[in-house]
Amino acid sequence: MRRFLLLMPVALLLAAVVVMLATEYVVARPSRRAKDVAYLPATAPGFDKERHILDVYSPKKKAPAAGGYPVVLFIHGGSWTSGSKNIYTFIGRRLAKQGVVAVIINYRLAPPVHVPEQAADCARALAWTVQNITSYGGDPARVFVMGHSAGGGLAALLATDDALLAANGLPQNPVRGAIMDDPAGLDMYSYLKEMKYEGDQQYLVPFGNDPTVWKEQSPIYKIRPGIPPFLFYIGGETYPSISESSGRFRDRLKAIGQPAPYTVIAGRHHIPMVLQLYWQNNIIYKGLLKMVGA
């Protein structure tokens, strides 16, 4: 059924990850994992001990560059209502094995919070990363963001919304590039106005009923000269809304003179677009490593 189904079936993901974790020991040997690090102080208003945490995966070898390894902050998907960093240990391990410090984050889910609060959480995690990643071997001057599905939309906000970052501890945008893995939410303003797919009402739970908020949380309207470069990977069999909004995002980047490498992976559905990151030599890692300079 051709509809905009952003909710990642967590049970399916978990089943696949269980199989993957059978070999994690081998993958883990070249890396270190700092687990459940709080990126907000426990005294902060609204602190959530389960959601305001992240994991850091670092290569065991000393970085060849004086400033440290490049850093990728990964944001999970789940339709803004589900998901956990604990599902994506394989991404952290694979990145660390290839010379990248990976930061895999949690953020609060809807309900009870909405997307603006989730974006603020992601910005706070980014601020923590810039301020602390040196202790984990990372270079705070080479921080990149990456996301799949709803996480892609949140990552795009970090790359484009300087006001969001300034309100959450980052007076200057530190993002050096954004990797989009089948991203959702790039233009929720148009999507929620149209409501043309079955089940679209579910996205009012994270986005609310105010079109002003829909537009403010849609990174496509924040494209302007000077934003960091984007790198797109889109499933050839993904949901039409994802391919359509990603294509329009790419076109707007081109309109301001910014190249936007855009790769469609034939035969790939939405969930396999993130599951393929278990394999080290897949096309997404190849482009990512080139972008970050690993």
UniProtKB/TrEMBL annotation:
The keyword Metal-binding is annotated on this UniProt entry: no
Domain of life: Bacteria
BD-FAE-like domain segment(s): 54-235
Region forming the signal peptide: none
UniProtKB keywords: Hydrolase
Alphabetized GO MF terms: hydrolase activity
The keyword Hydrolase appears for this protein: yes
InterPro entries found in the cross-reference section: AB_hydrolase_fold, BD-FAE-like_dom, GDXG_lipolytic_enzyme
Protein name: Alpha/beta hydrolase
Source organism per UniProt: Hymenobacter glacialis
